[in-house]
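Reopening this ticket.

The earlier resolution said the output was attached, but the attachment link was broken on my side. Pasting everything inline this time so it's all in one place.
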Amino acid sequence: MAADAIHERLAEAQAGRGGAVFVHGDAGMGKSWLLGGIADAGFHVGRAHGSPIASGIPFEVMTQALAALGVGDQPTDTLAGRCHRMWQALESWSGDPVVLVVDDLHWADADSLTLLAFLCRRLAASRVAVVAALRAWPPAALDLARDLEESGCARTVELEPLGERSSAAFLALRTGHELPARTARTVWAMCAGNPLLLDHAARLLADGADLGSLETRSPDLAGRELLVRRFVGATTEAMRCARAGSVLGLSFDPGAAMELAGLDTEAGDDTVAGLQRERLLREAPGGRVEFVHPLFQQILYEEMPTSTRLRLHALAFALLMRRGVAGRGGRARAARKPGRRPACRRRAGTGRPRRTGRRSDRDGRALPGGRPSPGRRPRRPGAGAGRRPGPHGGRPGR
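Inline output:
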């Protein structure tokens, strides 16, 4: 269904009827795989990826996406001026139809979401499509997607877990043989139909692992233990490098992770190569690497002591500032500081503030030291496998 929605939206954009599709679901449901299948043929593609460490940098995500169109950053722009200039660039584009592909939109900064809303409300008569993938938490991106859908400017599609029969077929395909019905049912239940966890369980079964000890565990606990087993036997240097990478995001510069982990170039190169051999990391465009599965990043991030997570976030932000990643075009000055009064949410498509009745603690997500606000919306039971917490502990940053 999600693939069909994306295909239809791209076909409509080619015909001059642009619009947006937002695909949402927990980690491991196949969102990134769907976005990776969007080919360049017939389209000019602008890609962007949200990450926790950059979520406090104004316009970070949309600057990535629009860079492919040659739309430069003008830090002196007002919010309204920037929105208008970006729309003019899209409206006057004379090349192939454009598709803006954004992964992990839930980590996008508030200004990028405001700009995205502004653009999506004007795409109907254009040759521009937006395809974005996101999780339900932090909630701002999904709230925006639903607002756009209600106004007829977008479509949202939720990726559902696989059913028992589909899971059994998936396991048979991955293991090379049909599993006994009881085994297939047990694995389906412990993985809660999550394709990523099913794939990992199939690999363990193919290697002769005994998963019987997980039968009595809840899906959340069983899924976490499946992932933890993947890291058993990793060297101390590999774990330090992988943890540093998890703070930087799903995709990251290996040199930055090495520096955060305190590894010299030679040892760091060997460590990253080892993590790739173990199929924990893989190469990504632009000289970067990425975690093979989003839940590998999540499990590393969540299992870190809070003090370690805070320290790595502070070091990571300082490193990005020195390298100029966070300071492009003077935007470093606008990055959130601990204790700075947070901006209220903006009304989608207008740039005007919208009061929500809740205080935001976005500051804590961008830099350590922010204090989570009281009265936070509680986590939904059973939602742990697909959520990534903020740097303050086990609860997701807003």
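Reporter confirms the inline version is readable. The CA atoms of residues 346 and 353 lie 4 Å apart. The longest helix spans residues 306-323.
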